[in-house]
UniProtKB/TrEMBL annotation:
Domain LRRCT: 400-455
Claim: Glycoprotein is one of the keywords in the record: yes
UniProt organism field: Nesidiocoris tenuis
GO cellular component terms attached to this protein's record: plasma membrane
Name of the protein: LRRCT domain-containing protein
A Pfam family of this chain: LRR_8
């Protein structure tokens, strides 16, 4: 999973720094220098200050533009964006005397940040983006005076080790992202000084083989992203200090089992991502401690052979259960007993399910979305779906070997509600079934009812007010595959 863009990071904090004066006490100056003075950089006036961008240039021209800005009294640079440049070193005092609030140095071959290059920016700087450069280590001395920094983005660099006290001085930092570096070692005191304010930490896309002990000191952390590492095991002690954690991402690691009480200290955890591992076994006590907090659980793309009902039963508030792309071939009658009454979203696509249990859905009293796409199901009788008909708004049964039989009459009538809708994607690929005696496929909408000799109970639902409308999606991503009318 890709990290969010810088714009989303800014929105996550929701911070807008507006001041009636510049950081040096002079009245704010929102007037751009003459274009020729800062060329090839470009300056625009924004509501809160100047927006200056320097792209595809070098150290000489950037230094020249900064020298011009230093000569302007009381100037406020709300955004300074240095992108796609040849800037291997950030020289000492390059920004001295310039009031900069948001600084971006992106994709500019930056490998060295001298200690005094950022020291003059401690009063006003709130957001610093150093992503996609060539930094081999955290430039700790350059950060130590940035006492108002809220967001630090160091994604896509070449950092391999986070040393103790690497971020000392950044005592107001709320978001720290180090996605896709080469980090294999994080020393125990690496995040010392950040515990008071840090809310989000992204160390995904690195070379970690275990949850670093250093994260346990971040007692106010709300979101921890450890996806796309090489973590092969987790223990109860790994998350012991994260008492306020709301979201934990462990997707795309090398986990094979989920041990007992692994998350027992995370009693405020709302979302847990374990998809894309190699999990074959989930201990019945794996989710102890999450009984009243966990609502979103992602277990897709693993090697799970049956719904882990024993482990899931304590989760009385579970709303979203994703078990896509596993090896589940059988759903027990009591698979959702004891916890299913709060589930609104159930994803079982891309498994090996052949039959649906006659009473398997009886406990899913709140279910709105059911995805059974790409299994081996041939029959879906109305009696099986009846317990969830009143709440179910979306169902996807595409890419199954469905037989055109009388059991599908109810579904055909629901699909008819789509016939006048302008849904280009739907028109390209529809749910189909096979007439065995003809060896021919039909769209479910066009089953030849006159040749099917259906008798007995009338399962058709023709009243728009008596049943929800179903839209079957063809090509949308797994978590966004439905549209409700």
């Amino acid at each position: 999973m890709n990290p969010p863009g810088w714009a989303i990071l800014l929105a996550a904090v929701g911070f807008c720094y507006v001041s009636g004066q510049s950081s040096n006490g002079a009245p704010p100056n929102f007037q751009c220098p003459v274009h020729q003075e800062v060329s090839p950089c470009v300056c625009n006036v924004k509501k809160n200050g100047l927006d200056i961008m320097c792209e595809f240039t070098d150290n000489y021209h950037i230094n020249k533009a900064m020298a011009v800005l230093k000569g302007k009294s009381g100037i406020v640079v709300y955004y300074l964006k240095l992108r796609h440049n040849n800037l291997p070193k950030l020289q000492s005092f390059i920004f001295l005397g310039i009031d900069i609030r948001h600084l971006t140095i992106h994709n500019s071959s930056l490998a060295v940040i001298e200690e005094s290059s950022l020291s003059s920016m401690g009063i006003g700087l709130t957001q610093l983006d150093l992503s996609q450069n060539s930094l081999g280590s955290v430039p700790s001395p350059a950060f130590k005076n940035l006492h108002h920094l809220l967001i630090l983005n160091m994604n896509h660099n070449k950092i391999s080790v986070i040393h103790s006290r690497a971020f000392e001085g950044l005592d107001t930092l709320e978001i720290l992202t180090l996605y896709e570096n080469k980090i294999s070692t994080i020393e125990d005191g690496a995040f010392k000084g950040l515990a008071k304010k840090l809310r989000r930490l992204n160390i995904g896309g690195n070379g970690l083989t275990a949850v670093p002990k250093a994260v346990g000191h971040l007692e106010n952390l709300r979101k921890l992203e450890l996806q796309e590492n090489s973590i092969s095991h987790i223990t109860e002690k790994d998350f012991e200090g994260l008492v306020k954690l709301d979201s934990l991402g462990l997707a795309h690691n090398h986990l094979r089992t989920v041990p007992p009480r692994a998350f027992s200290h995370l009693q405020e955890l709302n979302s847990l991502e374990l998809d894309g591992n190699s999990i074959t076994h989930i201990n019945p006590d794996a989710f102890v401690g999450l009984e009243v907090s966990l609502q979103y659980l992602r277990l897709g793309d693993n090697n799970i052979h049956q719904i882990p009902s024993d482990a899931l039963k304590p989760l009385h508030r579970l709303r979203h259960l994703d078990l896509r792309s596993n090896n589940i071939s059988y759903i027990a009658e009591d698979a959702f007993t004891g916890y299913g009454d709060s589930i609104t979203f159930l994803n079982l696509q891309k498994n090996n399910i052949k039959m649906l249990p006659s009473m398997g859905f009886d406990n899913l009293n709140s279910l709105e979305t059911l995805n059974l796409q790409n299994n081996k199901i041939s029959h879906i009788p109305e009696e099986i779906m009846e317990p969830i008909v009143d709440t179910l708004r979306v169902v996807d049964i595409m890419d199954n070997p469905l037989l055109c039989d009388c059991e599908l009459r109810w579904y055909k009538e629901w699909i008819k509600n789509l016939k006048d809708k302008d849904d280009e994607m739907m028109q390209k690929k529809r749910t189909v079934c096979t007439m065995e005696n003809e060896h021919r496929e039909y769209p479910v909408q066009n089953m030849p009812m006159d040749r099917m000799n259906c008798v007995g109970k009338n399962m058709e639902r023709t009243s728009a007010s008596s049943a929800p409308t179903l839209i079957v999606s063809a090509l949308l991503p797994p978590l966004l595959m439905f549209t409700c009318l």
